Amino acid sequence: MHPILKSYFQDLTQIDEEKLEALSPYFKEKTVKKNEFLLREGEVCRFNYFVLSGCLRLFSVNNEGLENTRYIAFEGKFGTSFTSLITGDPSIEYIQSLEKSVVLTITKDDFFYLVENEPAVNKIYRNILESAYITTQKRIYDLQGSDSLGRLKWLLKQQPRIFNRLSNKVIASYLGITQYTLSRLKANL
Amino acid sequence: MHPILKSYFQDLTQIDEEKLEALSPYFKEKTVKKNEFLLREGEVCRFNYFVLSGCLRLFSVNNEGLENTRYIAFEGKFGTSFTSLITGDPSIEYIQSLEKSVVLTITKDDFFYLVENEPAVNKIYRNILESAYITTQKRIYDLQGSDSLGRLKWLLKQQPRIFNRLSNKVIASYLGITQYTLSRLKANL
DNA sequence: GGAAAAAGTTGCTCTATGTCAACGTTTTGA
DNA sequence: TCAAAACGTTGACATAGAGCAACTTTTTCC
After folding, report:
1. E-assigned strand segments in chain A
2. Cβ contact (<8 Å) for A141 and B60?
3. Which of residues 104-123 of B touch A (CB under 8 A)?
4. Per-residue pLDDT tens over the stretch A42-83
5. Is residue A128 in some structural domain?
6. Which one of A79, A96, A172, B24 is separated from A39 by 20 to 30 angstroms, measured CA to CA?
7. Does the residue B132 lie in any domain?
8. Per-residue pLDDT tens over the stretch B58-96
9. Each residue of A136-150: pLDDT tens digit?
10. Total domains, chain A
């Protein structure tokens, strides 16, 4: 098993080496070009992705063509459209690689099979969902509770690497503001 | 076991009657007055609540004293501040009963004990987290993706009972707008 | 049942942020 | 390596929605 995924499991569970190696074949390595799409709106999501290097962005495009970025999965994180994966409905969001990335892919069926039958994966999945719950609770209060400048400062403090690695356009779409407003805010920080 | 909670389990799991009855003692019935608080900001959340009748509101208060409502748990739903329950950190949100309500309470320790040791509860918890994931994904895109009128129409369509049972003030705080704006929007629907 | 409090409505004004356009800078890919 | 495209910045202007105040209606609870 790839060492990054192995650490991920070992940090969250007490799984033994043998079982860990048994899980390995379910994950296939895949290299993704910068800006390549792993999922488009309207498609049913069929894979869960674990990022080994690079990063994936989850975003949607609204009626006016504006992008909203919901989540960035950096290396060492799972990232996929769980909503589509869980419901089987067409996705309302896109998954795009923002950098040349290497990911491990596991199919939806394999993933949920392991969730049901392998306690370590059940635990991992629970942890993913719990983390998502915590992050999005904060995000909802943050989106509604502060103005653009407040949100920018919050993000600078919480996730500084976002500013090193992502374009202003993506950051703006993550903050829910236009790139123009972001540019002005940064000029006055 | 209370029939509403029993149905909840039976809809989501294949648990047998005997095990179901064994779970019953973990849940204690509690009556809550209208507007009573079950949790305040800064307190560590110690219970999970299952609503039998009435409804609970999860909300936070920002620096300017404005309320943001994140979730309403109506009858037949679990509702608590999972973030505080999971992390053990003080809650950033309040839990308040919006109507005279009857809830079943289960302690945090009992709940997570059952999540680990009773497959049916593990499944229930997974379902709660998955539902929350799906709801909040939509909510984030909704908050960022449309204007106030769009959000109002969306809510009217998705959750009409909210309009029958909750005050405009609460609805406004759920939509992330002021009561004034909501009042004006409704006048022009 | 009635006084007091809370909630809802509406006019006026103000402000943060969006929109659009122009222009400089950086990145991309043939 | 160089042209084209994408990205970032900034000014001028437009606008959705906030803030506040006055008033009406509804709810609360002695």
Report:
1. 28-32, 37-39, 47-53, 55-61, 67-74, 78-79, 94-97, 101-107
2. yes
3. 115, 122
4. 999 999 999 999 999 999 998 888 999 999 999 999 999 999
5. no
6. A172
7. no
8. 999 988 889 999 999 999 999 999 999 999 999 999 999
9. 999 888 888 889 999
10. 1
* B129 Cβ under 8 Å from any chain A Cβ: yes
Residue B35 domain flag = yes
User: Mean of the pLDDT values across residues B162-184?
Assistant: 95
Give the residue numbers spanning the domain of A35: 3-117
Number of C-alpha atoms within 13 angstroms, CB side, residue A130? 17
Tell me what the pLDDT averaged over chain B comes to.
95
Does the distance separating the beta carbons of B134 and A129 come in below 8 Å?
no
CATH number, domain at A102?
A: 2.60.120.10
- A123 domain-assigned: no
Interface check A88 vs B, CB under 8 A: no
B131 close to A (CB below 8 A): no
Q: Which of B68, B83, B126 sits opposite A134 (nearest CB)?
A: B83
Q: In sequence order, what are the residues at sequence separation of 6 or more whose Cβ sits closer than 8 angstroms to the Cβ of residue A155? A: A162, A163, A171, A174, A175
- Structure token digits, residue A158: 């919480």
DSSP secondary structure, B56-92, as one string: EEEEEE-TTS-EEEEEEEETT-EE--HHHHHH-PBPS
Report d(CA B30, CA B27) in Å as an integer: 10
